[in-house]
Amino acid sequence: MDSDKRLKERELIEKVKAGDSQAYYDLVSDYRERLFRKACSIVGDVDEAEDLLQEALVSAYLAIHSFRGESGIYTWLYRIVVNRCRDFLRSSGNRAIPMDPLDPFSLVVKDFRPGIEKNHEHSEEASYLMDKINSLNGKYKKILLLRYYDELSYQEIGELMKMNIGTVKSRLFKARELLKRMIIADKGESYFE
After folding, report:
1. What is the SS3 string spanning the chain?
2. pLDDT at residue number 71
3. Topology (CATH level 3) of domain 1-100
């Protein structure tokens, strides 16, 4: 994140802490869609995800005074949304059926982006790619999803996974290579041409 955006973010946080609810809307509006997709991927239901996101954003607003700025605001919001979804899965009888209900990254990932019907992203190739990603080892699957599905920066991934940026980059490189090898084994080198 560039320094101008960080400065604006800090200013908005201070306004929110001073009681400016419009500043909170401005602060979270850029992240809402990404957070919604994350909630959808965890709970597997668009309506539940919307409700859980709203609850998480209200909780974050009420707890904004506890935000210390050690991570970016998106990372902080992301954790709140993921935790809200985990709590829901625990209390709901585990409707999304993750392999480990406490690890949202063990879910079989589906694409719940708003406004997308059955179009090119739900094509056979997209399904094939998601199947390959889902078959990766957990740490490689997780880092690919954080980077390309959740669209997190290297810094945000490092904050969430508690690793330095160099480790994030090398693990992401390894994940891409593993994915590429699986695809080449299935479809050959011509797939990438």
Report:
1. CCHHHHHHHHHHHHHHHCCCHHHHHHHHHCCHHHHHHHHHHHHCCHHHHHHHHHHHHHHHHHCHHHCCCCCCHHHHHHHHHHHHHHHHHHHCCCCCCCCCCCCHHHCCCCCCCCCCCCCHHHCHHHHHHHHHHHCCCHHHHHHHHHHHHCCCCHHHHHHHHCCCHHHHHHHHHHHHHHHHHHHHHHHCHHHHC
2. 81
3. Rna Polymerase Sigma Factor; Chain: A (1.10.1740)
